[in-house]
C-alpha cells in the first residue's frame, strides 16, 4: 500500500488514467462494464478504477453504479453475509430483466474493497457496511450523502438493498432469487446415496444390528437430555446467556454464579446440572455396578466415597438454591427447640 | 411383586403375599389421605374459597351445569361476558372438569349429602390428587413392581409441582387432567403387557376423558406414537404393541372429535399427524411380521424386498400428502405454543404474547429444585434402573421422562407434566436402592449369625467362599432369566412383557450384597434425603402454593393483616347495581366479576378477541372524555380498577398499564407507548408525561389519593405521584374498598346540550339524543 502513496507513482497513475479516459466514450464504458459484469458470477463488478467510470466521465453518465464497500481483511462474518446478499440482488436484477438490455445497462452492481484505500478515501467511508448509489448526475463523490443508504436501512438483507435501489433509481429489481440450500446436483447425489444404501440399511435394520438396537445408546441419550434440561440449558439458549460474566468492579474477577432466581449463567447451569445428574448416577453405580464387585474393601471404599460426594453435592445444591432464591425452608421443629 | 405369582394357598409364602397385599392396600390408603390432606393448607390457613381467576369461571360453569342440566350447559350461550358479543361456553371449554365436579355434586346429593357446589369444586383437586397417586402406583407397578409403585405414589402425593396446581380451591383443568394423564399411560402399559383388548378399550375411554379435560392431551397423542415408533425401530414390535396402539388411535380419535372444542382438529391439525403416520407404519410392520411368520426364511427374503418397497412407496406418498397439507398452512398447521416447544426460540422471535406470559418462560435450575426437589437427584438412577432390563414398559417411562424433561426445560408450565414422570423414576430408583441396601443388611446379618464360629477367619478382605456359592446361584438365576427372555423373543405373542422373575431376583439379592455398615449409612442418608423432600413439600404446600390470591394476607409486627377487598367490592357490585349493568375492567378481573358479582363484563380472562381487549385498553389509556365515549358506546355503567398504591399490592392495574397501552396501540395506532414513557422509563411521579397523567387509568387509580396521607405516596412505585389534586369530569366515584384495592366508578350521564330544548323533550327523545355521538366512532 505504501507504494501507492508515493508521489511519482501517483503522478504517473493519473497521467495514465487521463490518457485512457480521454479516449473512451461513455458507450464504450457501458460495454466495458457489461463485459466486466459478465465475467463475474453474480454480476458484481470489482471496481478497481473509480475515476475511469465515475469521476472522469462527463455527467450525466449513461448508467448508475451501486457500490458495496467491502473489506475482506476485516474477516467479518456479517459483512460477508451481507456481501452475499448484495450479490443475490445483483443476480436477481440481471435475471429478472434478462431480455431488456436498456434496463440492465442502466445500473451496475459494484464492489470496492478496503485494500483500495484511495477510493475509500474519495467516498469518505468511515464505517462498514456501507452502500452507495452513484447516480448519473453525481459529480462530487464527497457529497455522496444523498446516494448513501441510510444506516437504519442497512440491515444486511437483500430485500433492503433491493428496496433502496428501487426507491432511488426507478428500476425494478423484482423478486430476489436465493440459491437453494443444496444445489440440484447435491440433492441428486444425496437422494441416490439414500436410494442405494436403503436396502442395506433396511436389511441391517431387520437383522437388528444398528446402533438403535443398542440400549446403551438410548441410556446415554436419556441421561444426557436429562442433564441438559435440568440445568436449564434451554433458558440459556433462548436468552443467549453467556457462560460467565466479568465483575463490573474488578475486571479480572469472573462471575460464575448469579444471585437472582430468574437468571442463571452458563457455567452455573452446567455445574448444577452436573450435581443433579451426578448424584443419581452415583446411586445407580452403587446399586447396579458396585454390588457385583467381589472385594469387600473395594466396595467399602467406593461406597464411602460415593456417599461423601453425594452428600456434599446435595448440600451444595441446597445451599446454592437458598442463596439464589433467598428462601429458607422452615424445618417445623417444635417451638421449644428453637 | 408380592402379588404376581400366587403359590398354593395355605403355604407360608401365600400368607406372606396376602399380608403384603393388605399392607400395600393400607399404605395406598394412607398415601391417598396424605395426598388429600397436604392440599388442605389453603382451607386451613385461609378459608374454603375458589382461588385466583380461571377457577372462578370453571366454578360458574359448574354452577350453571348443576342448576340447568347437561343439555342446557352444552348449548349455553353466555351473554354476561364479552358484551356485546357473548361467548358460546358449551363449544369453547374443555368440559371434563366441569362434568366431573357436576357429577360428584349430583351423586352426593342423590345419596342425601347436601354439599354446596362450591365445596365440591374446592375439594375436587385434592380428591383427584389422591386418585393420581393411586394411578401412579398402578403405572409404576406395571413397570417395576409394587415396591417401586408405592414409593412413586408416595412421592407423587406430595410433589410440589403438582401441589401448585391442585391445592384445595384451585379448581382448574390440570386438577383432573394429571390423573387422566397418568391413568391413560397406565392403561397403555397394561395393554402393552397383557395384550388385552379390554384394557385397550378402557385406554381409549380414559384418553377421551383426558381430551375432555385439558389441551395437554396432545402430549399423550404424540408420546404414545413415539413410543410405538421407538419399539418398532429397536426391534421390539409385537402384536401386543399393535393392540395397545391401533384401537387407541381409531377409538381415541373418534371420541376426541366428539368434544366440541376439539372437533375436527383431531384429524386436521399437525399435533395429531404423528399418530396417523405411526398408525400406517405399524400396519406396514405388522404385515412384514405376518409374512415373516407364514413364509420360509428364503421366501421371506424375497418377499421383504417386495413388501418393503411397496410399503416405502405408500409411506412416501402419505408423507408427501402430509407435507403438502402442512405446507399449505402458514404456521405449518402447528399452533404457536406447540411450535415454541419444537423450536424453543420460536416464541421469543415471533409471538411476543406467548413469550410474555411468565409460565411460558424457560425455567432456570432453581425452578427444578423448587418443583421436584430431591427427585432431580434420583431421576438419573431411575433411568439407569429402567435399562436393566429394558422392557416395553420401562422404555415407555424412559421416553416419558425424556420428553417431559425436555418440554419442561422449554416452558416452565410443563413442569407439571414432568412431575409424575420424575416421581415414577425416583420411585424406581428409591425402591431399587432400598432393595439393595436392605437385602445387603439382611444377608450380612444372617450370615454373621450363621457363621459366628468362624467369624475370625472371615474378617479377611475376601468373602469368597460364600460369594462363590451365591454367585453360582446368581449365574444360574441370570441364566434362567436369559432363557426366559430368549423364549420370549421367539414367542412374544403369547407371553406377557418380560419382567425379572421373582426367583432370579431373590437369587440376585442373596448374591449381590454390599458391606453392612456402609449399607446402613447409605440407608440413613436416603432416609434423610426423603425426610428433606417431605419437609420441602410441606413447606411448599403450606407457604408457597396455598395463597388463594382473592384474599391476601400480610404478616407484620402487629399481627396478621387480611385484605379481603376483592370480595368486598364484588359483593358491593352485586348488591348495589342493576342486574343488567355492564362493568368494565381489565381482563384479569372478568371471570371474577361474572362469577362473584354476577354482572356483565366487557372482556375476561378467556382472551379470544384481541380487538375487544384492545378497545378496553384504549379506553383506559385515553383521556377522560374519550374514554367516557368509548365506554358509553359499549353501554358500560361502571368501571372497576384495582389499585395497590395504598397497601403496596404490586399486581395492580397501574403496573399492568403498559400492557393495556401496548395491546390497545396494537389495534388503535393513535395510542403510542412512547407517549406514556419519559425517556423510555415508565413513571407516575412528577416527571411523568402529560399523556400519562391525564389518562383514565391514572385518574381512576389516584383520584382523591392525596387525601389518604396528604402526600400521595405510592407504596408500590415508591414515589409521590405526579398529579395530586384533580377532579373527574365524566366519572364519579361510587365505591372504594377498605384498603383502596378496588375502586369502582360510575359513568356520569351525558350533560344536556341545549337547556331550553332539552326541557321540552321527553325522556324518550332524550335517550335518542344520547345515541347521537355514537355516529362518530369514538374509538378512533
From TrEMBL, chain A:
Recorded hits in Pfam families, A to Z, give: OST3_OST6
Where in or outside the cell is it found? Answer: Membrane
Q: For this UniProt entry, which residues form the secretion signal? A: 1-26
Q: Which InterPro entries match?
A: OligosaccharylTrfase_OST3/OST6
Q: Does the keyword Transmembrane helix apply?
A: yes
Q: GO CC: one term?
A: oligosaccharyltransferase complex
Give the GO biological process terms: protein N-linked glycosylation via asparagine
The domain of life is Eukaryota
**Keywords assigned by UniProt, alphabetized:** Membrane, Signal, Transmembrane, Transmembrane helix
Where do transmembrane segments lie in this chain? 185-202, 223-245, 265-287, 299-318
Membrane topology summary: Multi-pass membrane protein
Q: Which PANTHER family match?
A: DOLICHYL-DIPHOSPHOOLIGOSACCHARIDE--PROTEIN GLYCOSYLTRANSFERASE SUBUNIT 3B, DOLICHYL-DIPHOSPHOOLIGOSACCHARIDE--PROTEIN GLYCOSYLTRANSFERASE-RELATED
Name of the protein described by the UniProt record? Probable dolichyl-diphosphooligosaccharide--protein glycosyltransferase subunit 3A
Q: Which organism is it from?
A: Raphanus sativus (Radish)
TrEMBL record, chain B:
Domain STT3/PglB/AglB core: from-to ranges = 580-639
Signal sequence range? none
Membrane-crossing ranges are: 21-44, 88-108, 120-139, 145-163, 175-200, 206-230, 242-267, 273-291, 303-327, 372-390, 397-418, 424-443, 511-535
Cite the entry's keywords alphabetically.
Endoplasmic reticulum, Glycoprotein, Glycosyltransferase, Magnesium, Manganese, Membrane, Metal-binding, Transferase, Transmembrane, Transmembrane helix
**One GO cellular component term:** endoplasmic reticulum membrane
EC no.? Answer: 2.4.99.18
Major place of residence: endoplasmic reticulum
* Record bears the keyword Magnesium: yes
Identify the cofactor(s). Answer: Mg(2+); Mn(2+)
Source domain of life? Eukaryota
Catalysed conversion reaction: a di-trans,poly-cis-dolichyl diphosphooligosaccharide + L-asparaginyl-[protein] = N(4)-(oligosaccharide-(1->4)-N-acetyl-beta-D-glucosaminyl-(1->4)-N-acetyl-beta-D-glucosaminyl)-L-asparaginyl-[protein] + a di-trans,poly-cis-dolichyl diphosphate + H(+)
Q: Which residues form the Oligosaccharyl transferase STT3 N-terminal domain?
A: 22-425
Q: Where is the stretch described as Disordered?
A: 448-502, 757-780
Q: Does the keyword Membrane apply?
A: yes
Molecular function terms from GO: dolichyl-diphosphooligosaccharide-protein glycotransferase activity; metal ion binding
Localization (cell):
Endoplasmic reticulum membrane
Instruction: Enumerate the InterPro entries for this protein.
Output: Oligo_trans_STT3 (IPR003674), STT3-PglB_core (IPR048999), STT3_N (IPR048307)
Residue ranges under compositional bias (Basic and acidic residues)?
A: 465-501
| Family, as annotated | Belongs to the STT3 family.
Share what the entry says about its subunit structure, partners included. Answer: Component of the oligosaccharyltransferase (OST) complex.
The protein in question is named dolichyl-diphosphooligosaccharide--protein glycotransferase
Amino acid at each position: 500500500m505504501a507504494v501507492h502513496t508515493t508521489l511519482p507513482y501517483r503522478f504517473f497513475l493519473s497521467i495514465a488514467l487521463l490518457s485512457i479516459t480521454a479516449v473512451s466514450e461513455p458507450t464504450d464504458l457501458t460495454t466495458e462494464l457489461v463485459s466486466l459484469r459478465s465475467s463475474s458470477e453474480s454480476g458484481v463488478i470489482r471496481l478497481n478504477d473509480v475515476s475511469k467510470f465515475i469521476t472522469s466521465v462527463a455527467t450525466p453518465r449513461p448508467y448508475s453504479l451501486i457500490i458495496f464497500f467491502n473489506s475482506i481483511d476485516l474477516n467479518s462474518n456479517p459483512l460477508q453475509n451481507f456481501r452475499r446478499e448484495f450479490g443475490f440482488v445483483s443476480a436477481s436484477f440481471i435475471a429478472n430483466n434478462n431480455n431488456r438490455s436498456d434496463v440492465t445497462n442502466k445500473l451496475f452492481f459494484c464492489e470496492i474493497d478496503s485494500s483500495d484505500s484511495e477510493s475509500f478515501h474519495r467516498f469518505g467511508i468511515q464505517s462498514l457496511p456501507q452502500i452507495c448509489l452513484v447516480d448519473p448526475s453525481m459529480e462530487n463523490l464527497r457529497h455522496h450523502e444523498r446516494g448513501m443508504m441510510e444506516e437504519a436501512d442497512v440491515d444486511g438483507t437483500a430485500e433492503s438493498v433491493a428496496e433502496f435501489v428501487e426507491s432511488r433509481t426507478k428500476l425494478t429489481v423484482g423478486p430476489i432469487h436465493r440459491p437453494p440450500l443444496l444445489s440440484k446436483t447435491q440433492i441428486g447425489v444425496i437422494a441416490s446415496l439414500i436410494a442405494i444404501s436403503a436396502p442395506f440399511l433396511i436389511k441391517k435394520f431387520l437383522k437388528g444390528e444398528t446402533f438403535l438396537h443398542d440400549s446403551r445408546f438410548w441410556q446415554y441419550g436419556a441421561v444426557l437430555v436429562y442433564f441438559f434440561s435440568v440445568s436449564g440449558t434451554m433458558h440459556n439458549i433462548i436468552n443467549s446467556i453467556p457462560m460467565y460474566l466479568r465483575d463490573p468492579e474488578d475486571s479480572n474477577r469472573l462471575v460464575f454464579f448469579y444471585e437472582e432466581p430468574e437468571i442463571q449463567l452458563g457455567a452455573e447451569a452446567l455445574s448444577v446440572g452436573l450435581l443433579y445428574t451426578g448424584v443419581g448416577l452415583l446411586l445407580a453405580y452403587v446399586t447396579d455396578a458396585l454390588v457385583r464387585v467381589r472385594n469387600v474393601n473395594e466396595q467399602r471404599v467406593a461406597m464411602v466415597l460415593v456417599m461423601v460426594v453425594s452428600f456434599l453435592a446435595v448440600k451444595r445444591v441446597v445451599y446454592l438454591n437458598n442463596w439464589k432464591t433467598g428462601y429458607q425452608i422452615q424445618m417445623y421443629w417444635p417451638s421449644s427447640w428453637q | 411383586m408380592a402379588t404376581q405369582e400366587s403359590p398354593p394357598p395355605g403355604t407360608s409364602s401365600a400368607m406372606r403375599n396376602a399380608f403384603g397385599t393388605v399392607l400395600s392396600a393400607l399404605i395406598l390408603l394412607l398415601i391417598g389421605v396424605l395426598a388429600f390432606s397436604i392440599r388442605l393448607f389453603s382451607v386451613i390457613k385461609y378459608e374454603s374459597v375458589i382461588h385466583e381467576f380461571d377457577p372462578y369461571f370453571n366454578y360458574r360453569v359448574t354452577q350453571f351445569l348443576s342448576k340447568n342440566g347437561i343439555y342446557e350447559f352444552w348449548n349455553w350461550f353466555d351473554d354476561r361476558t364479552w358484551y356485546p358479543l357473548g361467548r358460546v361456553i358449551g363449544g369453547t371449554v374443555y368440559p371434563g372438569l366441569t362434568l366431573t365436579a357436576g357429577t360428584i355434586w349430583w351423586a352426593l346429593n342423590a345419596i342425601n349429602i347436601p354439599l354446596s357446589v362450591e365445596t365440591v369444586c374446592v375439594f375436587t383437586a385434592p380428591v383427584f390428587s389422591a386418585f393420581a397417586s393411586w394411578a401412579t402406583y398402578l403405572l409404576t407397578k406395571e413397570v417395576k413392581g409394587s415396591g417401586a409403585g408405592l414409593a412413586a405414589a408416595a412421592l407423587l402425593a406430595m410433589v410440589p409441582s403438582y401441589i401448585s396446581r391442585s391445592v384445595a380451591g384451585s379448581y382448574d383443568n390440570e386438577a383432573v387432567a394429571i390423573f387422566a394423564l397418568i391413568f391413560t399411560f397406565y392403561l397403555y402399559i397394561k395393554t402393552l403387557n397383557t395384550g388385552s383388548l379390554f384394557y385397550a378399550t378402557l385406554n381409549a375411554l380414559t384418553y377421551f376423558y383426558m381430551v375432555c379435560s385439558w389441551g395437554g392431551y396432545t402430549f399423550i397423542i404424540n408420546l404414545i406414537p413415539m413410543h410405538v415408533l421407538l419399539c418398532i425401530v429397536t426391534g421390539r414390535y409385537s402384536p401386543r404393541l399393535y393392540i395397545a396402539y391401533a384401537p387407541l388411535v381409531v377409538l381415541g380419535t373418534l371420541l376426541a372429535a366428539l368434544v366440541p372444542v376439539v372437533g375436527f382438529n383431531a384429524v386436521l391439525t399437525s399435533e395429531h399427524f404423528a399418530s396417523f403416520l405411526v398408525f400406517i407404519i405399524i400396519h406396514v410392520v405388522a404385515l412384514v411380521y405376518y409374512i415373516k411368520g407364514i413364509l420360509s426364511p428364503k421366501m421371506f427374503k424375497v418377499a421383504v424386498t417386495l413388501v418393503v418397497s411397496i410399503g416405502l412407496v405408500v409411506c412416501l406418498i402419505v408423507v408427501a400428502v402430509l407435507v403438502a397439507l402442512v405446507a399449505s398452512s402458514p404456521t405449518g398447521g402447528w399452533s404457536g405454543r406447540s411450535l415454541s416447544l419444537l423450536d424453543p426460540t420460536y416464541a421469543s422471535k415471533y409471538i411476543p404474547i406467548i413469550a410474555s406470559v411468565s409460565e411460558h418462560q424457560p425455567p432456570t435450575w432453581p425452578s427444578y429444585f423448587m418443583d421436584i426437589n430431591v427427585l432431580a437427584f434420583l431421576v438419573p438412577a431411575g433411568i439407569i434402573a429402567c435399562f436393566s432390563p429394558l422392557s416395553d414398559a420401562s422404555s415407555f417411562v424412559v421416553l416419558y421422562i425424556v420428553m417431559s424433561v425436555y418440554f419442561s426445560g422449554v416452558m416452565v408450565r410443563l413442569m407439571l407434566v414432568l412431575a409424575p414422570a420424575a416421581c415414577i423414576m425416583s420411585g424406581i430408583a428409591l425402591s431399587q436402592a432400598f432393595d439393595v441396601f436392605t437385602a445387603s443388611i439382611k444377608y450380612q446379618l444372617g450370615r454373621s449369625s450363621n457363621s459366628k464360629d468362624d467369624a475370625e477367619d472371615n474378617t479377611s478382605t475376601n468373602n469368597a467362599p460364600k460369594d462363590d456359592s451365591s454367585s453360582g446361584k446368581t449365574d444360574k438365576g441370570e441364566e434362567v432369566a436369559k432363557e426366559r427372555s430368549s423364549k420370549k423373543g421367539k414367542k412374544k405373542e403369547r407371553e406377557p412383557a418380560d419382567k425379572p422373575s421373582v426367583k432370579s431376583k431373590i437369587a440376585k439379592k442373596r448374591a449381590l450384597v454390599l458391606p453392612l455398615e456402609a449399607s446402613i449409612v447409605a440407608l440413613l442418608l436416603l432416609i434423610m434425603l426423603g425426610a428433606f423432600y417431605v419437609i420441602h413439600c410441606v413447606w411448599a404446600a403450606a407457604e408457597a402454593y396455598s395463597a388463594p390470591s382473592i384474599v391476601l394476607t400480610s404478616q407484620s409486627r402487629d399481627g396478621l393483616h387480611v385484605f379481603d377487598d376483592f370480595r368486598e367490592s364484588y359483593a358491593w357490585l352485586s348488591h348495589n347495581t342493576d342486574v343488567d349493568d355492564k362493568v368494565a375492567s381489565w381482563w384479569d378481573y372478568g371471570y371474577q366479576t361474572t362469577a362473584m358479582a354476577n354482572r356483565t363484563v366487557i372482556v375476561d380472562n378467556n382472551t379470544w378477541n384481541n380487538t375487544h381487549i384492545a378497545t378496553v385498553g384504549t379506553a383506559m389509556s385515553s383521556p377522560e372524555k374519550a374514554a367516557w365515549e368509548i365506554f358509553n358506546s359499549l353501554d358500560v355503567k361502571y368501571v372497576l380498577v384495582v389499585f395497590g398504591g395504598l397497601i403496596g399490592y404490586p399486581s395492580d392495574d397501574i403496573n399492568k398499564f403498559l400492557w393495556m397501552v401496548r395491546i390497545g396501540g396494537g389495534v388503535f395506532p393513535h395510542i403510542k407507548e412512547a407517549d406514556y414513557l419519559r425517556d423510555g422509563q415508565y413513571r407516575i411521579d412528577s416527571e411523568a408525561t402529560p399523556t400519562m397523567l391525564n389518562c383514565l387509568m391514572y385518574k381512576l387509580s389516584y383520584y382523591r389519593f392525596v387525601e389518604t396521607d396528604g402526600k400521595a405516596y405510592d407504596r408500590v412505585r415508591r414515589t409521590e405521584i405526579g398529579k395530586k389534586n384533580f377532579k373527574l369530569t365524566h366519572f364519579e366515584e361510587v365505591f372504594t374498598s377498605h384498603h383502596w384495592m378496588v375502586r369502582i366508578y360510575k359513568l356520569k350521564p351525558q350533560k344536556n346540550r341545549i337547556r331550553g330544548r332539552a326541557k321540552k323533550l321527553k325522556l324518550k327523545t332524550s335517550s335518542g339524543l344520547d345515541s347521537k355521538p355514537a355516529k362518530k366512532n369514538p374509538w378512533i
